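Record type: monomer structure entry
Structure origin: computed from sequence
Chain ID: A
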Amino acid sequence: MSALKVTNAETADSRWKSLYKVAGVAALVALSANLLDVVLGFGETDIIVYGTKTAIDWFALYQENWFKGLYTLGFLNIVYMACLVPVYFGIFAAHRRTNGVYAVLAMIVSFIGMAIYISNSAAIPMFVLSGKYAAAGTDAQRALFAAAGEAVLAYGEDFTPGSFIGLIFGGIAAIAMSFVMLRGGIFGKATAWIGIIGFTFLSIFTIWSTFIPVLYYVAFYFFGMIGGLLALTWFVLVSLRFFKLGRTEK
């Protein structure tokens, strides 16, 4: 019986270590998605102020460069959010004996925000509509697709009231998860505080950009950039810690 218990314990321990490794890789992919978003934004002559482009403007952007249309409307955010699933499960696993309840609550908030954001995302629907708009043979058909595009943008364009709930829930969950890390001590206080400050700045940027778009540039440079850099650092540190936990759980 004792041998069986030891075997079961070893199997469970091996599964947690495997989860940590997957979480570490997912953190790096999330980091890469954010970095790619930043790199693709370099060289642009202007920053797109969300909520100011019409559906026809977006269709033109998709026809000019379909990939630019996708990532500008948040497709990389979908990749990023999907990667957070194993990352948050990994953080929960590391704190399951101490702050597991709070980690679960943070995951629930994150998954609700993720579901809202991904289901409402305008990136792929606008890609499809742009193709139909370009292929339309009459003005009436083009007007129909333009109206459909405006409806999609109304609930799915980034930094507009339609996408706000999904984005802000994600920010709140990231801050809460960083507090779990702060209390648990497994990832280090420095990593936790970098997450708390970084995701707080990004949440302020989300609120500011959504409801005071006229000052979008101010929000971008003072909160978006600083918060983004701190978030990237957080993912690096979290990934390194996950890989260490994957080797030996302590």
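Annotation 1: The chain has one domain: 17-247.
Annotation 2: The first helix runs from residue 2 to 41.
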